[in-house]
Amino acid sequence: MSHRRDQKETLRRERERREAEAKAAEQRKRLVGIVGAVVLAVVAIAVVVVVASGSGGGDGGSGVKGNQDIFPSGGSIPKQKVFDLSKAASAAGCELKSNKSVSRSHITNLNAKVGYNTNPPNSGKHYFDPAQDGLYNSTPPPDVQLVHAQEHGRVIIWAKPSLARDARQKIRALFDEDSYQMIVVERKEMPYALAATAWSADPTPLGAGRTMGCPAWNDNVVDALRAFRDEHRSNGPEPIP
């Protein structure tokens, strides 16, 4: 009988040990869940802080970089009427061009002079760090950074600073209307009064550069820029949100 009592006592202690271990494991699991939730909350707060800080200060709260008067605020544009790119470009007197990209390789010298096949450039060898999205009311980033941004699916609007103030205000209004994956810069030396460029993924693997060049500003240019933006945005060989 003593032997059986000892066995029962041993089994009881083993059961209690297992129950204690299970309870401890459950507590650890609950603690990990709480810590994970706290970490996620901290990360979410950090993201909000970064976004908030990134949209203020030099960006003017709207993706505008710099405080020069290249693209002044105060312009207004009508609602879009023409959505087909070919029709919109034709109505605006703008020319659509396409060219195969010759390279997707990176360079590490920001000041390197790359001989691009188009002006403004729309594809090719580029600096490893892309230009940030935004409207540049200041000196624009180098071409090698702007090309990389296009590889990531960005659409760039290039405008001569000699355009009439009203035209530059409308370009600003167009950016304010929809700034997602958009870059707006001045370009003094190019064969157009303004242009839009993008880098399409097709044909793989290098893709193709796309250009819409406009010899002069007119009211139809706004819809042409909208149609070009909607046709080519987020369609780069290396799409990055």
Give an account of the 3D structure:
The longest helix has 53 residues, at 2-54. Helix 2 runs antiparallel to helix 5. The protein has 241 residues and is an alpha/beta fold. The strands form two sheets. The chain has a seven-stranded mixed β-sheet with strand order 1-5-7-6-8-9-2. It starts with a helix and ends in a 9-residue tail after the last helix. The relative contact order is 0.16. It has helices spanning 2-54, 85-92, 143-151, 165-177, 221-232; strands at residues 64-65, 95-100, 106-107, 126-127, 134-136, 155-159, 182-186, 194-200, 208-214.
Shape: globular
Secondary-structure element pattern, one letter each = HEHEEEEHEHEEEH
The biggest sheet, with number of strands, parallel, antiparallel or mixed sense and barrel status, is: 7 strands, mixed
Low-confidence stretches: 34-58
What percentage of amino acids are in beta strands? 15-25%
**Mean of residue pLDDT values:** 85
State the separation between the terminal residues, measured CA to CA.
75 Å
CA-based gyration radius: 28 Å
Number of individual domains: 2
> Please, how many helices?
5
Strand order of the largest sheet: 1-5-7-6-8-9-2
- State the share of residues found in helices, binned by percent: 25-40%
Query: Would you count the extended β strands for me?
Result: 9
Q: Would you tell me the structural class of the helices and strands?
A: alpha/beta
